[in-house]
Amino acid sequence: MALYELLHQLNIPYQEVSHAAVYTIEEAERLQIDLPGVEVKNLFIKDKTHYFLYCLPAQKRADLKALRRTIESGALTFAKEGELLEKLGLTAGSVTPLGLVNNTQRDVTLLIDKELLGLTVWVHPNTNTKTMSLTLEDLLRLMEYLHVQVQFCL
């Protein structure tokens, strides 16, 4: 099912703006997007046996060694672009937890930084030419509907 149809079916409200394509947090910050919420960054990472999508505040430094200890995984590395396309149907610059709608094997765990609890977040709706604002609670509701494993960390 298409992302927007699913959001509508689940009565998940969102606000959205279109903009020029962005590939980095720095490029996104220059856009001066006027939406409620906080900007997040999303890292598609893996260990030898599992894939993870790590969602954290945009300005927070990702400490993969500390994350590894927290989630009790093997050594974490960034997944290759081909793996991103295969698992989430996304390309570099478009990484978003909403890409998990495309992960029909349900073999990617969503890791959410605890600092995002209770907030409204900005995510790409599977394209880097739009930014969507929705509550983390609604994002979690979508993940529950999709049967995505979610783990809170750090």
Secondary structure: elements and pairs:
Blueprint: H1 3-9, E1 15-18, H2 25-30, E2 38-46, E3 51-57, H3 64-71, E4 77-78, H4 81-88, E5 108-113, E6 120-123, E7 130-135, H5 136-146, E8 150-153
Parallel strand pairs: 2-6, 3-5, 5-8
Antiparallel strand pairs: 1-7, 2-3, 2-4, 6-7
List how many beta strands DSSP finds: 8
Oligomer state of the chains in this structure: single chain
> Percent range for helical residues?
25-40%
**Overall morphology:** globular
Strand content: 25-35%
Q: How much is the average pLDDT?
A: 93
Quote the distance from N terminus to C terminus: 32 Å
| Secondary-structure element series | HEHEEHEHEEEHE
Classify the secondary structure makeup into a structural class: alpha/beta
Radius of gyration, CA atoms, in whole angstroms: 14 Å
Compute the number of helices. Answer: 5
Labels describing this entry:
eight-stranded mixed beta sheet, 154 residues, alpha/beta, globular, 26% helix
